[in-house]
Design brief:
Structural class: alpha+beta
Strand content: 15-25%
Strand order of the largest sheet: 5-6-9-8-7-11-10
Radius of gyration: 31 Å
Number of helices: 26
Distance between the termini: 53 Å
Amino acid sequence: MYICYLCAVEFGSTQQLRVHLQRHKFNGQLTFPIKCCQGGCSSVFTTVFNYVRHLKSYHSMCGKSVAVHDKTVDTEQASEDVHFLDTSVDDSSDRIDSTHCLQSVEKHTVSLIAQLRANSSIPYCIIPTIVQSFNDMACSLRSVAQSEISSGLLHAGIDKVVADDVAAEVTGKIEHCCKPLDSLSSRYKIDKYFEGHPFSVMPESVCFGPHVECHSGASRYAYDTFQYVSVEKTLHSLLSNKLYVDALLRSKCEPGIIADFMDGTRCQQHYMFGDCTKFSLKLQLFYDGLGVTNPLRSHGVIHNVGVFYYTVNNLPQHFNSCFGNVHLLALCYSHDLAVYGYDAVLDKFVSEMKHLSSVGISGEFPLLGNSTVYANLSQVSCDNLALNSLFGFIESFSGSYFCTLCYASSDEIQHKFREEQFCKRTITEYNEDVSNVPKMLKQGKVHCRGVKRYCKLNDLEGFHVTDNWSLDIMHVVLEGIIPVELSCILHSLCMDDKCISLDVVNKEILMLWGKITVEQTHKPAELSKLLLPGQGLTPSMKAVQYFAFLKYLPLAVGKYVPENNAHWQFLLHLAHLVDLIFARHFTRDMVLHLKDVIDDHLSNFLELYSSYGVKLKPKHHLLVHLPSVILKNGPLVGMSCMKYELKNSFFKRCAHIVCNFTNICKTLAHRHQQQSLYIQLSNGHIRDTVTVGKTRFDFVGALPYSVTINNKLGLCDSAEVAVCTKLCVGTVEYKVGHYVVLQFDHEAGLPIFAKIVSFVSAIDSDLWYIVVEVVKTVLFVSHFHAYKVLGNKSPCFDCVQYSQLLDHQPLYCHSLWVYESKLHFLRLPYHILKLLFRYISSACHLKMTGDREIDRLTQGRRSMVIDYYWTVSNVL
């Protein structure tokens, strides 16, 4: 007997179980990973197909399962009027009639077509052809069945007349199975079928305005439209998912720690978000232009679109980086935005926000019960050009007043490196600038102190463009500051100091990426030549490539550069600054330290490279606002545009596949919503699922780390455990050989690293443990911007869960030969010091650790005293 891990219903065959799981899936009830509960097997799977294949291979002779099931499905989560899922049939029955079989075929049909429509690489016109092919195969199989029945009866000695009668009778009864997919045989039928799903949210066409067009010699009025997806309907659909609501409720604020938007002062002081009596959703809006065709072809820009996304800031950060949690708001042609402006799109959005912030969404929701959920705009996150354009500021960054947060001029940014030295924009000043715009237009100017027009988003209560406080570190730092400063550093090291050459840099980076075990897809491009200082790197790279290049450059070429080289010290300072900017958690005093680091960095940059004619870029100025942005809106990674930019690949791929530009916005919006429906029903937007690779079963006593397993899991040597070499949590992949950060050594003031040895799980348990070998952290080597580690003479094993790790990122241990000695270094991906506060309980340990860490952070320059360790001690 086979048993469902969700509802504990037993089945006599894998076919029955597969049909049953498909019903769970398209009711939105199926949770991933799928767990094998047969005979205590702890294998997990991400698809029903792989699970059924596993059952056929390893459990074909299994008896009745005695596994304990700790999960039950909340059947109220799915709507009762899901018309294509009939749950009234008794799945546990040994006898399945033809009607039940036909229903099973229909469920598989829905599953197949839903997955095809969710795939951006498959044009919709192919799907009816696939359906027709299945129908044709079914007809052929009916003929084969008739022939086989007749020949089988004749072979058994049955009279031919009787055999033919039996074959004809059976064939007549299965006549209705000749075209099992006929109900979804056309594009129209498929559209109507899925649009009727209660979780489906289809885009609607909204009019921009009329225009005159000529067709076949006749003139007529036509209407320019854009595609809009209702925020209220989308949120209502999401709130019907129990797992999604559970994720919304996970976020918790810790005193003294700035971990997400809810910890910022803007959220706490907001009229609605700060009201603890209301459950409110905080929406982050994004806008960008998108080219869906090859820009090198003629008329490539006429199909460019403007895309509006949003995410829900209530979700933890690792959830919002998921493709399925970035929701579409609107799609429109860029030409229409240039003609009609943003007001039409923003009016629709503002109208919905006013309704959701005052009336809300009422209903019966999982975990919330009968309640009202409110929503409002929390912040807008765009690249610099899109943000200025959307807010009504000037799009030019070569002059003054380019900043949306202050009145900085092009001359001031060259010698002022503190935010308090600039005059900030306020609501009063903004209103005065807007009122003066008509006067400036009469004088031949297009703006007044950077303001060109009023923004409709200001009509929302609790939001104003001057109080947005959002900067995108992807464009500001990764694609802006890093290439500019690396070009200065490499040019000085190669051409002036002649410590290294461009060939050495390329060779060492190539060799490092031949050995690296993490971030392999982020390999930097090979540099073709060195440009003049300040002109960037060539060829240009993606943001993640610039990030990886800066991260591993000290390890790759550090052995060639003297320790006292000024340009190398500036490179290390840049790496330290980027580590702080991309930190996942902050304290208020860490923010104060970041302010001083930015001041020092900008001063050093001009001191070193102003002789080359290099000046600070506008993006350098935006650095001075980052500390205030963190205090007001939380860590900078939460407002990065990277998750939105990744979403654009879906539309580009779809446009390339469909090749139909009659109304590309409508086509893309419709396909996106089809994919969103499939993601929600398959729970693809829940990122904390744990999956493992191929597993084997071993006795505990046969493992080299058996003592650790005995202590942690309470198992004897004769017990069996499941062992594997790869484990995935969401999209983060851990393999044997990776390193992780376990905790913090209070005495030494250094993090404790460990090498992953294996992954184990007890029989009849769905908890997986990471078996690690702890290594010794010697010291932080500032010249390589990495920690030097040593292996212990006798292996020291430990067994931890994923949630117990200090940081979720796997690390790569790089080996270097320095003065005929082989050294091992670990590079942290970003600054994670603040996470260590949770493990420090003693004030004296805290102070001692703080002194050492301040020395490392300031690289020996104690120009200021940081007391944020004591601040956290008082909080704890």
